[in-house]
Amino acid sequence: MESKRQQKMASLLQQELAAVLQRDLPHLFNGGLAPGISTVRVTPDLGQARVYLSLLLSTDADARLAAVQDNVKEIRHALAKRIRKTARVVPELIFFHDDSAAYAAHMDQVLSTLHIPAESKEVDETEKPKLPKLFNSKGE
């Protein structure tokens, strides 16, 4: 469980990184749409931040993630300019691809193809499961 301090820092980083990627450094994506930031997780010492990028609308998600990872230094510097009065130290940024939405769509597709028969409301006495006897006839 994250502390309030970690949660505040993660929230700040999520907002400011989104602004950095969309406004300050759009040239990193060659005129394309900047990736969204789905989650930020910060270590207890606030030294590292794991940033999960949502790359749903892009066909070349791996190339866009590589572009972000290649420019981590520039992104961190732009982030430092934005949060210099709020945070004492800018954490090391580690970017990951967040594929949870694609996984959810896949699971929805799998579940929709399942055939689940409807449950009958009437249960015959012969179909009821028989419970094992725990005691003998004397009650022991």
From TrEMBL:
<protein>
    <recommendedName>
        <fullName>Ribosome-binding factor A</fullName>
    </recommendedName>
</protein>
<keyword id="KW-0963">Cytoplasm</keyword>
<comment type="similarity">
    <text>Belongs to the RbfA family.</text>
</comment>
<dbReference type="Pfam" id="PF02033">
    <property type="entry name" value="RBFA"/>
</dbReference>
<feature type="region of interest" description="Disordered">
    <location>
        <begin position="121"/>
        <end position="140"/>
    </location>
</feature>
<feature type="compositionally biased region" description="Basic and acidic residues">
    <location>
        <begin position="121"/>
        <end position="130"/>
    </location>
</feature>
<comment type="function">
    <text>One of several proteins that assist in the late maturation steps of the functional core of the 30S ribosomal subunit. Associates with free 30S ribosomal subunits (but not with 30S subunits that are part of 70S ribosomes or polysomes). Required for efficient processing of 16S rRNA. May interact with the 5'-terminal helix region of 16S rRNA.</text>
</comment>
<dbReference type="InterPro" id="IPR015946">
    <property type="entry name" value="KH_dom-like_a/b"/>
</dbReference>
<dbReference type="InterPro" id="IPR000238">
    <property type="entry name" value="RbfA"/>
</dbReference>
<comment type="subunit">
    <text>Monomer. Binds 30S ribosomal subunits, but not 50S ribosomal subunits or 70S ribosomes.</text>
</comment>
<keyword id="KW-0690">Ribosome biogenesis</keyword>
<dbReference type="InterPro" id="IPR023799">
    <property type="entry name" value="RbfA_dom_sf"/>
</dbReference>
